[in-house]
Design a protein that fits this description.
- The chain is an alpha+beta fold.
- The protein is globular, with a radius of gyration of 24 Å.
- It contains 11 helices and 36 strands.
- The longest helix has 18 residues.
- The strands form 8 sheets. Strands 29-30-32-31-33-34-35-36 form an 8-stranded mixed β-sheet, with helices on both faces.
């Protein structure tokens, strides 16, 4: 199982610069230093909230001498490789003017495997195509991994060599004409040369492949969308043929246990939701019989696993109850985490990356009210050095308080939500912003959020409901969202207003709704369906036409995360698409979208604006020429925050 790091802009930049000077303390556990004192009542300027994080999604090289991550450079995010100990001038390499960098992973110390994507014309429309490249750590070489023989999807990384060689396994479609090409096959690639060779042929309805720590393709997951039937193909070595070891029963909605980690002793580890929550179990092979439960929570799923460096066991479990953190199963890592926790007091320390022998680590320190600080920790030295405040203006200053609340929806469903209250106002009869998350199979938790904190800074209470269908709360909660886009999922948002009004926190007559991506869809749908609850709606990169987005990128509605979200229950996507119900819109709408957005095409907002204009409805539309889906430019963040502030001041002043 391979972990990858998230999307950034389309420039790769070498920034071989030494870590900024930080506070160091010797002797035992690390000590984290504070920023200079700041008047807590001083107003924070909007520009501070628009700042990009200094280094996001950082990943240590296997030898612990370099970091790969998204760095803020001249107001934009770039993939960088930073030397922790040398000095050099930055060097930029362009991978394409219209291309996203979606993830990256170290391949030895000398190379990175990088997943990229872009819009391409296909059968009279635009679709999203993915590819893979190899990039040398010094950023002097870029290798395309067999692009000419790849189909629409060609970036599923399965395995990375651990012997220092630049080899990977990945699955890809090889074309778009025949079923043999459309179903992905597995390939070995040398990222330093771009050469590939096939190691497992495609199989009918097999969309996902899995490899063990030694690089053996062990498993394929077969799923037929039309029937809901799934099965598991298995083998123990590359010399064997695959055979079916498990099938589901679509009528009873039983699922197939899919191993995540193959142990050296012939057993495996897998998550299973028999209890209603994803929990970690030992599993025998090939009968897939569940053994000892290694970890589980009563109310929440586990988010993921952390493997040892050989890929043969699980040493940690990633969880989100009220905030994301790691529960270490390995005794040594548990001790290291305890030392970090002790050092930072009432803040939270999260180990975000480790080198190959666990002697060097990167640690994020902060709270949901702080932008956070990144530390480099060399265990042999016994010190934790501050690498960077993630927000240069704010440092580790604490702003508006954040907490988790729970309310009951109108049909009795319990809904968790993240509530942020303005730090300089009493929590009574506040103007409110309902801010649903994107996804929709995702969730909000107690983490730093620049958008939410800005709204609180200018006087609004902000509630972020984890509406039905959100991830993390178990199988039954996700199923509650099946077929409920724009329906009960909207009701959950509206019911948050009544809860806060009853608590005396919010004024129910002063509420607006805002969101991005799916959250933008929810805001548009609220303007069309539920205008009596809101004064205005704000959509950034929102989806207005569900049929159109499904055609553009099936992963938006039917991807690996969504699974059978749509296929198990038919929904009238046209009927719940705001674009086609513009005549029912009853409140002003602010639409904003980046022209360079390849996740949700800009036409989704353009078409919504056209429909609102034709219906004679009040709206404003701002298109950002260089804006993307992920706010990777400071200029776009700042323009958005200022436009949102002006819009709210007009229709729902704080």
């Amino acid at each position: 199982m391979v972990r990858r790091h998230a999307r950034c802009a389309a420039t790769i930049l070498l920034a071989a610069i030494a870590a900024p000077a930080g506070s160091q303390t010797g002797g035992g556990a690390p000590k984290a230093a504070d920023a200079p004192a700041v008047d807590p009542q001083a107003t924070v300027p909007v520009e501070a909230f628009a700042e990009l994080p200094v280094l996001a999604d950082p990943s240590l090289s296997p030898d612990g001498t370099h970091i790969a991550g998204k760095m803020a450079v001249a107001g934009a995010q770039h993939l960088v490789v930073v030397s922790l100990f040398d000095h050099a001038k930055p060097v930029a390499i362009k991978v394409g003017p219209e291309m996203d960098i979606n993830w990256w992973h170290w391949v030895g110390n000398g190379w990175l495997a990088v997943g990229v994507g872009q819009q391409v014309p296909f059968q009279g429309d635009d679709v999203y195509m993915t590819r893979m490249i190899g990039v040398s750590a010094d950023m002097k070489q870029v290798q395309r991994i067999d692009w000419p023989r790849s189909g629409l999807r060609a970036d599923d990384l399965l395995w990375v060599a651990r012997d220092g060689s630049p080899r990977i396994l990945f699955s890809r479609q090889t074309g778009i004409e025949t079923l043999d090409e459309i179903y992905p096959s597995v390939w070995e690639a040398d990222v330093s040369t771009g050469r590939t060779k096939r190691v497992a042929s495609s199989q009918v309805d097999v969309w996902n492949w899995h490899a063990d720590g030694a690089g053996t393709v062990r498993m394929g997951v077969r799923y037929a969308d039309a029937t809901g039937r799934a099965s598991l193909l298995y083998r123990t070595s590359n010399s064997e043929f695959f055979h079916t070891i498990a099938r589901n029963d679509p009528k009873s909605e039983t699922s197939v246990v899919v191993p995540l980690t193959f142990r050296a002793d012939g057993t495996a580890l897998a998550t299973d939701d028999t209890s209603g929550r994803d929990q970690l179990y030992e599993v025998s092979l090939p009968d897939l019989k569940l053994g000892k439960k290694l970890f589980g929570l009563d109310r929440y799923n586990i988010d993921g696993i952390i493997e040892n460096h050989d890929g043969t066991d699980v040493i940690g479990v990633q969880v989100t109850d009220t905030y994301p953190h790691t529960v270490w199963l390995d005794p040594e890592m548990k001790k290291i985490q305890e030392a970090a926790d002790k050092a930072v007091g009432n803040r939270r320390a999260r180990i975000v990356s480790r080198n190959a022998d666990d002697s060097r680590m990167l640690v994020e320190v902060g709270t949901a009210s702080q932008a956070g600080t990144l530390y480099f920790w060399d265990l042999a030295v016994g010190r934790m050095q501050r690498y960077a405040y993630q927000n240069r203006t704010l440092g580790n200053r604490s702003l508006s308080p954040v907490k988790t609340v729970r309310y009951t929806a109108r049909d009795g469903t319990a809904i968790d939500a993240v509530l942020t209250l303005p730090r300089r106002r009493a929590a009574r009869n506040l103007p409110l912003i309902v801010l649903p998350h994107g996804g929709p199979i995702a969730r909000d938790s107690e983490e730093w959020d620049w958008w939410t904190q800005y709204l609180a800074e200018i006087g609004y209470a902000v509630i972020q409901p984890n509406y039905r269908g959100s991830s993390g709360y178990g199988t039954a909660f996700v199923k509650l969202g099946e077929g409920e886009w724009g329906l009960k999922m909207q009701d959950d948002l509206n019911d948050a207003i009544g809860y806060l009004a009853k608590e005396g926190i919010a004024d129910p007559k002063r509420v607006c709704i805002a969101g991005a991506s799916y959250g933008g869809y929810a805001a548009l749908r609220a303007a069309q369906r539920d205008g009596t609850f809101y004064r205005c709606a704000i959509s950034y990169a929102g989806v207005s036409d569900l049929v159109g987005i499904k055609h553009y990128d099936a992963q938006f509605l039917n991807g690996k995360t969504a699974g059978r979200y749509w296929s198990k229950r038919t929904q009238d996507l046209h009927g719940v698409s705001p674009r086609f119900g513009a005549a029912q819109v009853s409140i002003p709408i602010l639409l904003m979208h980046g022209k360079a957005d390849r996740r949700v095409p800009v036409r989704q907002s353009r078409q919504m604006a056209e429909a609102l204009k034709a219906a004679g409805k009040p709206y404003e539309y701002i298109e950002q020429p260089l804006g993307d889906h992920h706010f990777t430019r400071t200029e776009d963040r700042l323009e958005f925050l200022k436009a949102m502030d002006a819009f709210l001041a007009k229709y729902n002043p704080a």
